[in-house]
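Quick review question:
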């Protein structure tokens, strides 16, 4: 086998704090092993044309460890595999163009940093002969096969800080404050930030809620003297027998967009409790800012391990955190699955024991 000389690196899907820390770790550790890196811009689109990539040396990644976002850019589209794209060589099938250009760019392997969608596309390319190593990312923490993804801890820290701030104003005005956080299919951010911020009700996609049961719990708080309440709702939470609140359905150019459950819950709780209510959507603020030290370390470990897997030619795999170790898993076992909050998860049970309402 000829030695690995050059690897491509890309970031796909919604950004997450820690992406730059992975890029830095990959570039530096590859460089120190005599492997060059080509940074591909805007996910797999960076493989469509030669001018959508740039060589990354250690000096290009110095100082990015602490930066949110991604120096490579990213896109959050659906699976473009069979779509037709206009290229400098005329119209081409997206997947075929990417494979062709991978070879023309002289790449020996591809490190793909992304969420389930990006990893699933990577898996498709792997099955078509492209040597891929995946690095899981999402603030939602819902990727199967890894205990944590980087970005999650930063998002939880931000949401917790926001809940702390809302606590004081809620208490001052004897109001119910509803905080909508991200989490399309899994309630990890809502559960962790809700518990860390001392929320009184937490609504997550895994547990369909009955709004009357939530209201009942908040009325009980009023009776024993707590005249305010904090409710944390994941964007993907939905009432029993109801639908998740979509802002935009999925299309070939974008994944589905959720939002609005916080405002709906807020209005219903106002009616059911007779109290003043307000709602706040934290939205993309959760994806911005500097990664926490935990996320920087996890991202750095992921990047280092990704280069090890490339050197060992263990392709078609994804790095993962299986505390205390960083391990690899076959992409095959991971893609297409969602890691949701288990109903017997101790944090969920503890929150219930403390009296937090989940609306069930
Ligand atoms: O998957 C991560 C995530 O932040 C979700 O929580 C959220 O629904 C989605 O991305 C938003 O994506 P976009 O920025 O493309 O609207």
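Suggested answer, residue by residue:
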């Amino acid at each position: 086998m000829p030695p690995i000389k050059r690897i491509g690196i890309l970031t796909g899907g919604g950004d997450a704090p820690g992406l730059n820390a992975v890029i830095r770790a990959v570039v530096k550790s590859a460089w120190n092993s005599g492997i060059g890196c080509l940074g591909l811009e805007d996910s797999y689109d960076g493989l469509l044309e030669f001018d959508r990539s740039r060589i990354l040396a250690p000096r290009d990644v110095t100082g990015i460890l602490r930066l949110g976002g991604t120096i490579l850019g990213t896109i959050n589209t659906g699976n473009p595999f069979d779509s037709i794209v206009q290229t400098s060589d005329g119209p081409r099938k997206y997947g075929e163009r990417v494979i062709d250009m991978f070879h023309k760019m002289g790449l020996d392997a591809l490190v793909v940093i992304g969420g389930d969608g990006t990893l699933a596309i990577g898996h498709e390319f792997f099955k078509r002969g492209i040597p891929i190593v995946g690095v899981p990312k999402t603030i939602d923490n819902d990727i199967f096969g890894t205990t944590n993804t980087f970005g999650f801890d930063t998002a939880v820290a931000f949401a917790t800080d926001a809940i702390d701030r809302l606590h004081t104003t809620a208490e001052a005005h004897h109001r119910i404050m509803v905080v909508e956080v991200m989490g399309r299919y899994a309630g990890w951010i809502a559960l962790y930030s809700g518990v860390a911020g001392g929320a009184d009700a937490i609504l997550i996609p895994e547990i369909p809620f009955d709004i009357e049961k939530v209201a009942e719990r908040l009325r009980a708080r009023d009776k024993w003297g707590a005249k305010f309440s904090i409710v944390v709702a994941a964007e993907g939470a939905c009432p029993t027998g109801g639908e998740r609140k979509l802002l935009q359905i999925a299309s070939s150019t974008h994944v589905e967009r959720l939002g609005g459950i916080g405002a709906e819950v807020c209005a219903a709780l106002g009616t059911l409790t007779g109290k003043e209510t307000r709602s706040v959507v934290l939205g993309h603020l959760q994806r911005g800012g500097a990664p926490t030290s935990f996320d920087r370390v996890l991202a750095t470990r992921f990047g280092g391990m990704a280069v090890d897997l490339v050197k060992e030619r263990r392709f078609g795999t994804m790095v993962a955190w299986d505390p205390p170790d960083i391990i690899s898993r076959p992409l095959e076992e991971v893609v297409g699955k969602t890691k949701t909050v288990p109903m017997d998860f101790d944090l969920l049970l503890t929150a219930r024991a403390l009296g937090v309402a989940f609306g069930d």
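Why it works: The mean pLDDT is 96. The CA atoms of residues 42 and 136 lie 17 Å apart.
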